[in-house]
Amino acid sequence: MRYAMVIDTLKCVGCSDCVVACQTENNVPVGYCRDWVTESVGGTYPSVEIELRSERCNHCSNAPCVRCCPTGASHIVEGGIVLVTHDECIGCGACIESCPYDARYTHPDGYVDKCTFCMHRVEKGQKPACVAVCPTKCMYFGDLDDANSEVSQLLKKREHKVLAPEAGTQPNVFYLI
Amino acid sequence: MITRRKFIKISALGMGAATMGAGAIQLLGAHSKSSNYAIQDFTRYPTYCEVCFWKCAGWTYVDKEGNIVKIKGNDKDTHSNGRFCPRGTGGVGMYHDTDRLQVPLIRVKDGDNETFKEATWDEALELIASKMKSIKAKYGPEAFGLLKHGAPGKHMEHLFKSYGSDTIGEPAYAQCRGPRETAFSMTFGSWVGSPEPTDIRDTKCLVLIGSHIGENMHNGQVQEMSDAIDNGATIITVDPRLSTAASKSKYWLAIKPATDLALLLAWIHVIIEEELYDKKYVEQYGYGFDELKNHVRDMTPEWAYGITTIKPSVIRETAREMAHAAPAVIVHPGRHVVWYGDDTQRGRAVAILNGLLGSWGRRGGFYFPEGKSIPKYPHPPYPDTKWSWETLGEQYPLAEMGITTEIIRASIPSEAKDGHLVKAWMVAGTNLIKSIPNKRLIEDAINSIDFMVVVDTMPSDIAGYADVVLPECTYLERYDGIRSASHRHPSIALRMPAAKPKYETKPAWWIAKQIGERLGLQAYFNYKNYEEVLDWQLKKIGSSLEEMQKIGVKNFDREENPLYLSEGEPYEFNTNTGKIEFYSTELENKGFDPLPKYTPHPEPPAGFYRLNYGRAPMHTFSRTVNNPNLNDLMDENSLWVNPKSAKVMGIKNGQYVWLKNQDDILSTFPIKVRITERIRWDSVYMVHGFGQTNKSMSRTYGKGAADTEMITHIMTDPIMGGTGMRGNFVMLLTENPHTNKNAPQKEEQES
Amino acid sequence: MNEELFVSGRNIPNIDPHLHIWHWPIPLYLFLGGLAAGILFFAALFTILGKEDKVPGAIKLAPLVAPVAIVIGLAALMFDLTHMLYFWRLYTTIRIESPMSWGAWVLMVMTPISFAWAFMYFRDVFPNFHWPFKWLYTIEDWLKTYKIWLAWALIPLTIVLGIYTGILLSAFNARPLWNNAILGPLFLTSGLSTGAAMNILFAKTPYERHLFGKIDLGLIIVELFFIIHMIMGYYAGPTAQREAVQLLMGGEFTVMFFVFIILMGLVFPLILETFELMGAKVWAAIPAILVLLGGAVLRFLMVDAGQMTRYLY
Ligand SMILES: Nc1nc2c(c(=O)[nH]1)N[C@H]1C(S)=C(S)[C@@H](COP(=O)(O)OP(=O)(O)OC[C@H]3O[C@@H](n4cnc5c(=O)[nH]c(N)nc54)[C@H](O)[C@@H]3O)O[C@H]1N2
Ligand SMILES: Nc1nc2c(c(=O)[nH]1)N[C@H]1C(S)=C(S)[C@@H](COP(=O)(O)OP(=O)(O)OC[C@H]3O[C@@H](n4cnc5c(=O)[nH]c(N)nc54)[C@H](O)[C@@H]3O)O[C@H]1N2
Ligand code: SF4
Ligand code: SF4
Ligand code: SF4
Ligand code: SF4
Ligand code: SF4
Ligand SMILES: [Mo]
Predict the structure, then answer these.
(1) Which of A96, B304, B522, C313 could form a disulfide linkage to B262, CB 3.0–4.6 angstroms apart?
(2) Which of A33, A89, A97 lies nearest to residue C83, judging by beta carbons?
(3) A contact residues 113-152, partner C, Cβ 8 Å cutoff
(4) Angle between helices C25-48 and C147-170 (to 10 degrees)
(5) What is the 3-state secondary structure (H, E, C) of A10-49?
(6) Angle subtended at Cα B107 by Cα B106 and Cα B108, rounded to the nearest 5 degrees
């Protein structure tokens, strides 16, 4: 089992529904976020292109945040989901510094928090909250070990990329381009 | 001049009554230590969204302590298909916002000083009822106008019609989609209506004339545009700015602003000259094709090139793309279409193009929507009125709804005609200061009238001008009318409270009923509560309140006619000729051009930039800017400036500037510059809704600038009275032009 | 023109303009850790070399600073933990891959040893002082008997601690400025150098002062060599690193880097100490203090600037 998210940048409109939906689903306090949206603009008017991306923890297969955690609070569970156990986390910030994507934040209660791939929903067979809400249906979630899953199929068919591959973390969030 | 009615900042009156502890700002109650939070069992209540007017149906989730935690779409709903847009998802913030109006407020004068005092509902309602009585006695009920929008408006409309006033208007007409409705009425004998019956998910070619779907977050449209992308549909976007939709399009036609009509006519020319139109369809249903053909004979792509800057080859190529896809093509009618004053005519060109392509009533074009009509709860007939919105808008013979600006104008004695003077207003669910251009006119009117009530959930800009402010509870805390949607099939949705109204707030239906009873109109409000009305209505259409409380949305089969025209089916359009009128007999009768003509519009003078504005996907006008969740996503608007123009002006990215328009009006607040290639060098762009002037909107006060402030030159549509707002030009000022740094601009002008 | 921006989510004060998770306590902790490592390294080294009598300042006096430095350093580290009450979780597991973990453990071991060392010579430094309990004398005797073992243990431990202060940063691939192999040796050298500087300050004899002057001189040269190497490494590295080093070479931190670290922290002391060794009259405390300050600024700069560098955005 290897969970992955595939996001179609050709459909994403940058509406940020994924961000609010995560906030209300996961009780992320106002002023913080587990996911965010970026926009890259290139070219010169009127020959301009933009790419919109919904970003979050990449649940890296080679996760530096897990390696550098001194307490084991950051850990990997079945399916490759990277999690933080809140009451094992001392808030040392090592994992935050180790993440090339700045995907983690310090919760006002002190522990470090980040995207969980909505484990609690996935366990129940539901899609992550951001995936479920996305109005353009541009996000897909599934198992890469299953060659027939929607995500595997999309990656087979479409051109794609991951973010900062040079950081060597082997992300499991993919962007169709 | 000392104004009679000073703007009162609601913050001035220590809204002490029920200020919440600081903890509440953390929004969703206590944080739990683990992610178990999300596994909690919630109770869910059906609702439909009030964050915009798409009215998606969904579920409000409430935790064990009774806190509203999240809102989700209802899978059965045709507006949301189970997915809310960001504003709908963030709707929870409307409920949690501690800046909300909490108690009724009454303006009191103490010498020169004016403040609001907190009042009981009884006091406030009594005062309103007595004013309504005295206005009726002195000037007739027609002199009490209602400016409204959204769900509260419906309840107030019933109150006003029962009372004898049909002096009613809403910004969703003359500031929004009025021109396209008139244009499509003239052509197809039918409004476009809302939600637009555009069959986007099955289209092969979607043409967007400015409508910036994706930023304009009307849910169904966004979802279906995405389906269309999946299906490989061609998208053609005409927009001077690289809108999000433009960035997803095969063709982005970066048109010179204000010249769309020329492009549309050139397209029509190509489609006729190259005989690309749907001949059978045009022959069977069309009227005035030959006149049209003659009319556009010289309107070649080469002619349009000089006007629009779009290359003739591109015009031809895109016209062929459309024809190739026809009839599964949609030339989208747009929605906020009050641009340059010739908007009905531009809408006509859009309608004509659709007519030629045969997309009206066709799969992948426009389908025929069907809705369920909800029987009206029994009440005596409304009294006749001596004059109404129609009388006030007489100058605009094809206006089909109240024109807000005419009601406002009729409130100023020197402007009122035939003694039709409006003496008092109720403003319910609309923030006139932001939604109606020409603030001067509104302020003059407000200073002229005797009395003004504002019914709102937030201390909006307009609330500061009221004599009485009534705090409505949010949509998550109340029952409202049944949402009956016209769609591919009829469907209804229920809104019910998920929590008790916070503070002293009340639903609009209750407010209307209370005022009605005090006016002796009991017969019109013959029910104990709204559940009774809903249950009665629902039972009439084969459901019940109990059932709807469980399912939220009920879908029905179509009964009237098929979704699309079938091949060669005889069909009578609701126009004078019963045909699709390429040549409009009605416009001709009323003395307007029966065929659309291109007329040039002014261009920005030296040193000025055309003010362009639009939507951000995470906000709805001014109603969400203080919403904690949505403010978190975007807390101020920025001014888009092309890098070339920025260089000329010596302006840097992130710098704050003030704006001055062609009429020397200054923006109250500065706005942050975003230097971007997404905008033309002769224009600047900003998102509408920011620049709140009411300090009690603590999160958003003073953040960003208001486009509406800069819109003082209005190009009125002579056909239906729409207020064209895109003919304003601004200059960027790097120094604060306000001598008194804190004073709002209004006070300065008066000195 | 290219533009990259956050549409939503991240453009909030809690995260941007850049992550600033580690505040002043972390560089302080790294500096004090390095300092303690340096002091104890020399104390142990000269004990093993049997030079106790020749360098009494380094063996008896300066080590009094070590436990204080370690305790303040640890306190600073704790202070920067945002979930402080759970700090004991550090000691429920050993995670080899986490420098933070083995740093915590090394410190755990170093703390009692540093106290023991200071305790052992406390009455040598303050001859009039008397322990309140008899058993304390017993311990003192016992320690003195076995101090050679203690010294042998300290050699690897201090080196690990010294390197650790650098590796803690360089382990983070995600921060291009930190991500270079020289940071460990550099911080170790700098730690030893600050230790030597401390020994100059505490030197009891001119011999001792000169000895540590010479040692420091050598360390400074090595440090300069490492720094030049490091900068060249950035330039030879991927884009992210080339961009990162701009912070030092013509960016926000240039003045701090060249004036406070290179000039005042290394070059001046180098010159002054050379003069002194050549017999010129220099007040030895000046280069020593400069070295200490330079060592501290180096940590503050690397921690601060490093957090500003990233791969994306
Ligand atoms: N997120 C969000 N969505 C909303 C709303 C909201 O408040 N927030 N409001 C809803 C409502 S009520 C409405 S009416 C709709 C309005 O949504 P639309 O009908 O899509 O709005 P417009 O204002 O017509 O479109 C704005 C676009 O027009 C472009 N434009 C400006 N001048 C010209 C021109 O001369 N020619 C052309 N071709 N394009 C031009 C602008 O660059 C911008 O991209 O949005 C609805 N959806
Ligand atoms: N300059 C400029 N002007 C415009 C536009 C533009 O793009 N630019 N767009 C135009 C268009 S398309 C439209 S449709 C109009 C929209 O115009 P409005 O509908 O007036 O827009 P809002 O700013 O959302 O104002 C709604 C008010 O209703 C309040 N409200 C929200 N929910 C409730 C509720 O449940 N009960 C009550 N009682 N009040 C509530 C909000 O707090 C807010 O004060 O604006 C038009 N005007
Ligand atoms: S919800 Fe979907 S469309 Fe909107 S920003 Fe997120 S990924 Fe993009
Ligand atoms: S994205 Fe960052 S937090 Fe997530 S697994 Fe990778 S390194 Fe860790
Ligand atoms: S902050 Fe918490 S999760 Fe992150 S490395 Fe430290 S202990 Fe582990
Ligand atoms: S998967 Fe869940 S936790 Fe992760 S960003 Fe999406 S909603 Fe948030
Ligand atoms: S489109 Fe969004 S804001 Fe409008 S009704 Fe639907 S969910 Fe609510
Ligand atoms: Mo609108």
Answers:
(1) B304
(2) A89
(3) none
(4) 150
(5) CCCCCCCHHHHHHHHHCCCCCCCCCCEEEEEEEEECCEEE
(6) 115
Instruction: For residue B88, report the distance from its CA to the centre of ligand 7, in Å.
Output: 5
Domain borders along chain C are 18-306
Cross-chain CB nearest to B633 (options C1, C5, C8): C8
CA distance C78 to C72: 10
Q: Which fold has domain B177-367?
A: Dimethylsulfoxide Reductase; domain 2 (3.40.228)
CATH number assigned to the domain covering B100-170+402-472+507-526:
3.40.50.740
Q: Which residues of C touch A93 (CB under 8 A)?
A: 21-22, 80, 82
Please count the residue pairs, one from chain A and one from chain B, whose beta carbons lie less than 8 angstroms apart.
156
Question: Mean pLDDT throughout C212-225?
Answer: 94
Q: State in Å: Cα B603 to ligand 8 middle.
A: 25
Asked if pLDDT for residue B1 goes beyond 80, the answer is no
**A48 interface with C at CB cutoff 8 Å:** no
Span B124-153, average pLDDT: 97
pTM of structure: 0.92
Residues with CB under 6 A from ligand 1: B 52-53, 176-177, 209-212, 216-218, 238-241, 243, 255, 257-258, 260, 334-337, 339, 612, 614-615, 617, 619-621, 726
Chains that touch C (3 or more CB pairs under 8 A): A, B
B212 C-beta closer than 6 A to ligand 2: no
Q: Which of B337, B376, B404, B380 is nearest to B163 (CA)?
A: B380
The CATH code belonging to domain C18-306 is 1.20.1630.10
- C308 confidence band (pLDDT: 50, 70, 90): confident
What's the CA gap between B730 and B661, in Å, rounded?
4
Q: Which of B216, B263, B612 to mutate to test the pocket of ligand 1 (most atoms within 8 A of CB)?
A: B216
Residue-level pLDDT at B33: 33
How confident is residue B11, by pLDDT bands cut at 50, 70 and 90?
very low
What is the per-residue pLDDT across B417-456, written as a single tens digit (0 to 9) for each?
888 999 999 999 999 999 999 999 999 999 999 999 999 9
In this model, does residue B390 exceed pLDDT 90?
yes
What is the full per-residue pLDDT of chain A (177 aa) written as tens digits?
Answer: 999 999 999 999 999 999 999 999 999 998 899 999 999 999 999 999 999 999 999 999 999 999 999 999 999 998 999 999 999 999 999 999 999 999 999 999 999 999 999 999 999 999 999 999 999 999 999 999 999 999 999 999 999 999 999 889 999 999 999
**Yes or no: domain B609-749 corresponds to CATH 2.30.30.40:** no
Q: How far is CA B665 from CA B433, B661, B691, B712, in A?
A: 15, 5, 15, 8
CATH of the domain at A75: 3.30.70.20
* Phi, psi of B627, rounded to the nearest 5 degrees: -65, 120
| Band (C20; pLDDT cuts 50, 70, 90) | confident
Backbone angles phi, psi at B639, to 5 degrees: -105, 115
Which pLDDT band, with edges at 50, 70 and 90, does C280 fall under? Answer: confident
Nearest residue in chain B measured CA to CA from A42: B677
- All residues with CB under 5 Å from ion ligand 8: B 176, 336
Which of A60, A81, A92, A91 lies closest to A170, judged by CA? A60
Count how many domains chain A has.
Answer: 1
Sketch the domain layout of chain B as residue ranges: 100-170+402-472+507-526, 177-367, 609-749
Q: Which domain holds residue A108?
A: 3-176
Transcribe C79-108 into DSSP letters.
HH-TTGGGGGGGGG---TT-HHHHHHHHHH
**Is A112 close to ligand 5, i.e. is its CB under 6 Å away?**
yes
C67 close to C37: Cβ distance less than 8 angstroms: no
Question: Which residues in chain C touch residue A28, judged by CB atoms under 8 angstroms apart?
Answer: none
